[in-house]
Specification:
By secondary structure, this protein is α/β, with parallel strands linked by helices. It has one domain: Aldolase class I (TIM Barrel). Helix content is about 45%, strand content about 15%. The chain has helices at about 15-30, 50-55, 80-85, 95-100, 105-120, 130-135, 140-150, 180-200, 200-205, 215-225, 240-250, and strands at about 5-10, 40, 60-65, 90-95, 125-130, 165, 210, 230-235. It has an eight-stranded parallel barrel with strand order 1-2-3-4-5-6-7-8, surrounded by six helices. Helix 1 packs parallel to helix 2 (about 50-55), helix 1 (about 15-30) runs parallel beside helix 11 and helix 7 (about 140-150) packs parallel to helix 8. The chain is globular and about 45 Å long. The protein starts with a strand and ends with a helix. About 45% of the residues are buried. It binds phosphoenolpyruvate. Phosphoenolpyruvate binds near residues 212, 215, 235 and 237. Phosphoenolpyruvate binds near residues 9 and 168.
Length: about 250
């Protein structure tokens, strides 16, 4: 049985004080609520080191929201995998649709980042998902297949043990429009079948595939109750401790 994994993508929200407050709220909720899911938080770079200190002794994982694929050098404004490791990160979100659409990241760039993260010992949370136009054109499965395949070029079956995939239909991110449980399950099963053809059945069965797109405590139970939905990547609802933990509580 795959354990449910709930990751909070804070995006560009919370300065250092805000981060300290939110982590303190999350820890208070965790102390009084019952759930089995694994939690990960992904604050902005500027709060990672403090978050790492504050999370010591808890089971909450720490992730970054992006990184660059080069080791070091003249890449103004970028952050390397080893820098993330040095401040206590275990995870890194890669290929988020906002990185793809606003910052022009291609499948090839994302693949380089995934390989570099794995080499450095970071666990990628690798995001894929179609836009509304692509879904309406009937291309959702082709797009997701291309993103999965191209993003995982030269990643080994062994390395897949460290990869989480997040299916995030772009039309459901931050819009309040949630994919129906059936719509999400259909794509998750498709991704798992794609993983079977790329890496074999064992890897496909063991890979955690999260759903992302307007997940809230109220819809988490039904979405995460689907056979191939192993958790959630949460944006808006992770910025309040009670709703973030409410998702974990309802995750089953
Ligand atoms: C996200 O950006 O990864 C996300 C799922 O956002 P939201 O939950 O706000 O839709």
């Amino acid at each position: 049985m795959r354990r449910k994994v709930i990751a909070g993508n804070w995006k560009m929200n919370n300065d250092l004080n805000g981060a300290i407050n939110l982590i303190s709220g999350i820890k208070q909720e965790v102390a009084v609520k019952k759930f089995d899911a694994k939690l990960i938080i992904c604050p902005p770079f500027t709060s990672l080191e403090t978050a790492h200190e504050l999370l010591k002794g808890s089971n909450i994982g720490l992730g970054a929201q992006n990184m660059y694929f080069e080791e070091s050098g003249a890449f103004t404004g970028e952050i390397s995998a080893s820098m993330l490791k040095s401040v206590g990160c275990e995870y890194v979100i890669l290929g988020h649709s906002e990185r793809r659409t606003i910052f022009g990241e291609t499948d090839e760039i994302i693949n380089k980042k995934i390989k570099k993260a794995l080499l450095a010992g970071l666990k990628p949370i690798f995001c894929v998902g179609e836009t509304l136009d692509e879904r309406e054109a009937g291309a959702a499965f082709d797009v997701v297949k291309r993103q999965v395949k191209n993003g995982l070029v030269d990643v080994s079956a062994d390395e897949m043990a460290s990869v989480i995939i997040a299916y995030e239909p772009v039309w459901a991110i931050g819009t309040g429009k949630v994919a129906t449980p059936a719509q999400a399950q259909e794509v998750h099963a498709f991704i798992r079948a794609e993983l079977t053809s790329l890496f074999g059945e064992k890897v496909a069965e063991e890979t955690v595939i999260q759903y992302g797109g307007s997940v809230k405590p109220e819809n988490a139970g039904e979405l995460l109750g689907q056979k191939d939905i192993d958790g959630a990547l949460v944006g808006g609802a992770c910025l309040k401790a009670d709703s973030f933990i409410g998702i974990a509580v309802n995750a089953g």
